[in-house]
Amino acid sequence: MFKKNLLSLFIANICFLIFVPLSQAFVGLCCAHCGGNMPLNIPGGGIPETHEFRFKLSQMYMEMGPLRDGTSDLKTSSLLGVPDSVTKFAAVPEEMRTYMTMASVAYSFTDNFSGMAMLGYVRNDMDMKFNSALTTAAGGKSGFTMFSHGITDLTLLGKYRVFKDDELAPTKQASVMFGVSLPTGSIDKEFSRNPVPGQNGTILPFRMQTGSGTVDPVLGVTLQGSNDPWWYGANFKWEGHLYDNDQGYHRGQELRYDLYLMRQVHPKAVLLTELNYWYEGKYSDEPFAQRVNGEGHVGFSPSGGFISPLNDPDNYGGHQMAVSFGFQFQPIPLHVLELIATMPIYQDLNGPQLRQDYMIQATYYVELPTKKSRRHKGFKPPKELGF
Amino acid sequence: MKMRNFFKVTVLMAALFVGLLGSSVWAHQQAFENMGISKPRTERSAPNFSLQNIHGEMVNLEDFRGKPILLNFWATWCEACKEELPSMQRLYDALSSQGVEVVAIAIDRKNFDRIQKYAREYKLTFPVLWDPDQKVRRHYFIMGLPTTYLIGPEGKLKGFASGARVWDSPDSIQALTSLKNKL
Lengths: 387, 183
Description:
heterodimer, A: Lipocalin, elongated, B: alpha/beta, Glutaredoxin, 7-stranded mixed β-sheet, 5 helices, 7 strands
């Protein structure tokens, strides 16, 4: 039911974007970002023309599993047993599905500076398996699907182009990205579907939370190049988590880089491929609900073993590398559709945790010229030639 | 009495001449306005250039001296540019016999063969030139595509249009023929 609602919301949003009344724009003009095409799934991708808005709506689906420790996959059943916090646990994840709808708006204030805001809505479903004791406690159920949903953190970004080798159709560009991620997501999501008595109402593990709980700085650098019919570039992004949230912990530092290569195969279609790398540090500590109240520990005792590897802050983060394939298509002027599939090629993860299996993302992007836009009024004739 | 009649006729003829001239100038200005063509504050000479055409021959702006020119900047990656090329060809078909010239400069850095392909595809018979080094583009201060300049028979810049236009419209034909008539 929820999936149907989510799909309906996505389709409704696309319809809105298609039929949203545009400014009486004179669109028959290529402007200053002709050489700046970029995959839309990369942070900062899709910069609008000067004095224009762009709205971007993405639907992402990711599957995670099986478990991995370091570079080796593990069977969920191998970790089930009498909890000792290290090798055996009472409840162990088997698979996770994440659905995320991301909406973002951007506006270019000048040829070189644009601002953007991004907000998401996420739903997480994580299939859990119980050991025999919890199966008995759950009335014979050998597992359940952990569930959380809610809005994500709000990200506000500025992107400033510091270098371009040409005004009209640059072949080399460099930009810096800076901003903050604001804690609009939750760090207090609780169990609601746990069949084990006494567990509902206790705090959900880290990954099931929808936010970081802290104001996090974001810095990035984007390098772009083009050589008709190719576009290529690199994007580096760091997101810091510098202090503890209200639950007394902070996420590990995040570093991401994306290398991309795009080839125009048709005036309205571009094929693209990416190499994506993420690094994420471990969580700094357990939330107060765990280390003070004993939630997530055997017997509700902070000194008791972790019920699940998900409760251990050391079982998060690591290195991941993936490749992505996709295409961009412009069905009608001002509208761009992008589909991308991402598959990991290397994952070195801290502790037993679910590894990424695959991710697909569909993005719809619409440009909205304003009356100040060049596509509305055209370029001014040059004074240097007497105009 | 005869002198008075002669004076009346002269005044009438002068008024008619001024009226015709005025209406012609007005029509010319209206055509520019309707096409969204900016007129220069001071008329300056169009920067000269010498570029290779799609047949590999060198073409100089001076070669067209004495003809009004529609000088268009485009690129094969610019969709809006390609949309207006057919109307430029129709304009050329209609006015080339009257001495109006259409010249298109492609600013693609590479892919000369693609320019040739588009010229064949759109059946372009007017001169299509190639500016791979972007030198001419820079001399004409092109910041967006397509951009079009109107150049008078004496080589002076007469108009500037940013963005695609329907170049075989009555207003466009009026604007080009008025340049030929040196109004």
